Amino acid sequence: MSDKPTVGVLGTGIMGAAMARNLVRAGLEVRAWNRTREKAEPLAGDGIGVAGTPAEAVEGADVVLTMLYDGHTALEVMREAAPALRPGTVWAQCTTAGTELVAELAAFAREHGLVFYDAPVLGTREPAEAGRLTVLAAGPEDGRNTVTPVFDAVGAQTVWTGEDGGAGSASRLKLVANSWVLAATAAAGEVLALAKALDVDPQDFFGLIEGGPLDMGYLRAKSALVLDGKLSPASFAVSTAEKDARLIVRAGERNGVRLDVAAATAERLARAAAQGHADEDMAAAYFASFEERAGSW
After folding, report:
1. Which CATH superfamily is domain 172-289 in?
2. What pLDDT is attached to residue 293?
3. Cα(78)–Cα(112) distance, rounded to whole angstroms?
4. CB of 54 within 8 A of CB of 33?
5. Which label site among 12, 41, 205, 217 has the fewest CB atoms less than 10 Å from its CB?
6. Would you tell me how many other CB atoms lie within 10 Å of the CB of residue 52?
7. pTM for the whole thing?
8. Where would I find the beta strands (DSSP E) of 54-186?
9. pLDDT, tens only, 181-198
10. Rounded to whole angstroms, how far apart are CA atoms 255 and 268?
11. Measured on CA atoms in the order 212, 216, 219, 221, is the torsion positive or negative?
């Protein structure tokens, strides 16, 4: 094998498509598959082979990268790909799968002789498109020479959390990071909702905290999406954020921790989705404070 592995990408949504493009830009040969083929077809123009089945995408691949909706989907798709998987193939599992399924995914890898890396990524649409994600990775030393060019192509840095991917240390860290992201997003939405209800100009609030310890670039970025009506295309969709929030809540419950903010955030996201915002950026959880779309600025 050359120092530039062949990669099969399973899942070409917001993140997977951007990652596939960056792999090609780095000089790697890439084949990609998506359940809805129409979403993958544009990748052909970037020199990426668009496969009709998961098995076609992974046949002959040195690395399989999964970027799917959740852990259950990743396992289902890998089962479909199984007939074409070669022993020794590296599996970089980048889906945010939570903590419960990592062991089952690793067990599948062992059954098929795959080298498993628990490798969720931190970042949204823009850093994904720029190849500036942070890869959180756990997996064996043997095999890292193969997977490192993949991580380097899609990310600005790789944070190694352990050598046993099945232990889920990378996925655990990802849930902790996402708990902060989701809490900050929910808080930003509630600040804007309260400002609207009390007839306070949001810019007066931003001016009040500017430059101080309460100021935060992320608050301003998410608020701007709401205030400017630029919730599409999503960087991180409401529906996906709700899924992650529920993974966080379950992880807390399994470990004896009550996460009230995460639970409330999951419900806010669910309400926003029910109002028709499921495919918009997660900042659209703002609308959950109102009936229907009455909260628009």
Report:
1. N-(1-d-carboxylethyl)-l-norvaline Dehydrogenase; domain 2 (1.10.1040.10)
2. 59
3. 10
4. yes
5. 217
6. 10
7. 0.94
8. 63-66, 90-93, 115-118, 121-122, 133-138, 155-162
9. 999 999 999 999 999 999
10. 24
11. positive
Token pair for residue 19? 């990652």
What is the rounded distance in angstroms from the CA atom of residue 119 to the CA atom of residue 266? 24
Please tell me the predicted confidence (pLDDT) of residue 1. Answer: 46
Rg (CA), the chain: 20
CB-CB contact of 115 with 91 (8 Å): yes
DSSP class per residue in 45-59: GGTPEEPSSHHHHHT
The parts of the chain modelled with pLDDT lower than 50 are 1
Contact between residue 278 and residue 234 where contact means Cβ atoms under 8 Å apart: no
Q: How far apart are CA 295 and CA 254, in angstroms?
A: 36
118 within 8 A of 165, measured Cβ to Cβ: yes
Nearest to 64 by CA among 120, 142, 117, 105: 117
Question: Which of 179, 127, 292, 286 has the alpha carbon at shortest distance from 222?
Answer: 286
Task: Say which DSSP state 274 is in.
Answer: I
Q: Which residue ranges make up each domain of the chain?
A: 7-167, 172-289
pLDDT for the residue numbered 3: 73
Q: Which two tokens stand for residue 250?
A: 């379950």
Give phi and psi for 102, each to the nearest 5: -60, -45
Q: Tell me, what's the pLDDT at 291?
A: 83
